[in-house]
Amino acid sequence: MHEYGLCEGVLDAVLLRAAGRPVAGIRVRCGARHAVDPPSMAQAFGMLAAGTVAADAVVSVVTVPATVTCRDCGESAESADLVPACARCGSVNVEIAGGDELTLESLTYADLAAADRLFQRRDEPARHLATQAGAVAAACHAMAVRFHRGGKLVVFGTGGASTDAQHVAVEFVHPVIVGKRALPAIALTTDVATVTGIAERDGVDAIFAHQLRALAGPEDIALGICAEPDSPSVAAGLRAAGELGLLTIALAGGDGGRLASDVSVGHLLVAASSDPRVVKEVHVTTYHILWELVHVFFEQPGVLAPGVVA
Description:
The chain has 310 residues and is of the alpha/beta class. It has helices spanning 2-18, 38-49, 112-131, 133-148, 160-173, 192-202, 209-215, 232-244, 276-298; strands at 23-31, 58-64, 66-70, 76-79, 94-97, 102-109, 153-157, 185-187, 221-225, 247-253, 267-271. The protein is elongated. It starts with a helix and ends in a 12-residue tail after the last helix.
């Protein structure tokens, strides 16, 4: 592709102007007569820039039209066509000016300090999750025991956590790693008719508790997920699950909120952050670990026998 050859000159200009600073974005003015395909241009630049300060830069291409003047009628207009014709009379007897430039218009530099701050915001919550290794192992062992006895996993959450619930369920039912055992799991957030029907008649706080009473049994596992420290519907669901005899596990944000003191929660795993985005990121890591460790326990003979604890 000819974009590769064009990008060699662009990269030289970028590196000269950047003078060692990490480049986040590049804006290139390219004449229409070069017939550049912007995605191909970006791909070619990425290949050439590998290992340089511009390796991760986003390339934007601004197409500059040529000026076309008709020799027959005198009409003058801009055109991005490779074979331009007069806009007025259609004649191809035209003069073409411009449209062949290739210039580096601007660079955007990466704000490393801002990037550092973003990573630092995630550092402590990730480290805090590591301190909960014992609690995570205990929850996973308890889950594996329930699965071993024929139980299923019932997952629920509101807002963004509602899609996490579906994510968890599909991880267990249809493992992404070939050869891992499929385990029964359902999300209580997928049936819009049921959720809205319960909310209409019994209130939003009852949307999970009602379903658990109808769909779950004492051999099952209830996993409630909430990015905020408190979610009334998730808390109510966990209380209902506890009353039914299910194993109860909660993934919460902040300091755990009311769930931290709720006796119906058998296992509480906390993402120690007030930023809901960070909480979600930690929760995703947490439930992936839950999935993986449950399978580790299944692969160890004897650890699921009565009386064995993690």
